[in-house]
Amino acid sequence: MNKKLSICIPTYNRAHTLKYTLDSICQQIAGYENEIEICISNNASIDDTELVVMAYKDRLPIKYHKMEENVYWLQNLNQTIEKMARGEYVITIGDDDIFINEGIKRIIELITEFPYDYIYLNHTHKPFGTIKKIVEEASCTLQIVSKECECYELSDRHIKKWEELLNFEGKCR
Predict the structure, then answer these.
(1) Which helix (H) or strand (E) holds 110?
(2) What is the pTM of this model?
(3) Which comes out higher in pLDDT, residue 114 or 73?
(4) What is the C-alpha separation between 125 and 114, in angstroms, rounded?
(5) 42 pLDDT band (50/70/90 cuts)?
(6) Which of 10, 11, 68, 133 could disulfide-pair with 76, CB 3.0 to 4.6 Å?
(7) Structure confidence by residue, pLDDT tens digits, 9-18
C-alpha cells in the first residue's frame, strides 16, 4: 500500500543534526504512521549517521539506503525521491531541519483537503542551537501564529541568504 506522504531526507556526515530531525518527526507522527514513510539516503557518511538512523527504526517507518561511495548531492537527493519514495506526495527536508507546530499534521490535512500537484510550504531559518532548545525543552510544540512550518539551519551564512531572498511569508495554497 502506498503512503500518502514520503518525507525524503538526503544526508551526509550530519549524525549530530539528523538526530534532531528524526526526534521532531517522532514527536508528531502519532496517528499518521500508516500514511507516512521516511526515506533516508546516506551519501557514504563516515560519521555515526547509520547508527542514528538505526536507533529510530523501531519508532519510525524508515526506508534507509547507504551509498557505496560519496556522490554529487543531487544524486543523493534523487535516490530518496526517485528510488525510495512511494508516497502520493513527497516533501524533501534537510538533515538539519525540524518540524514544529504540528507541521506533519498540517501537511497531511493540506494534501488531503487540496489534492494539488504541488504545494509550497513556508518556513523560516534560525541557528542550529535553536533546534536543540526547541526539541529538548519545548518538545516541538511551540505555537507561533504566523508560521505554518519552520525549518532551522546550521549555518548563519545560510540564514542571512534566505532572509534576503525570502523577504515575504509563503502561502500554503
Answers:
(1) helix 103-113
(2) 0.73
(3) 73
(4) 26
(5) very high
(6) 10
(7) 999 999 998 9
pLDDT for residue 122 is more than 60: no
Q: CA separation (Å) from 8 to 15, 66, 86, 99, 156?
A: 16, 14, 11, 13, 24
Confidence category of residue 1, pLDDT binned at 50, 70, 90: low
Grid cell for residue 19: 538526530
Contacting residues for 6 by C-beta, under 8 A, at least 6 apart: 36, 37, 38, 39, 80, 81, 84, 85, 86, 87, 89, 90, 91
* Contact residues for 63 (Cβ-Cβ < 8 A; gap 6+): 37, 38, 39, 40, 84
Cα 150 from Cα 107, distance rounded (Å):
12
Cell of 98: 525540524
User: Which amino acid belongs to residue 120?
Assistant: Y
The answer to whether residues 37 and 63 touch, using CB atoms and an 8 Å cutoff, is: yes
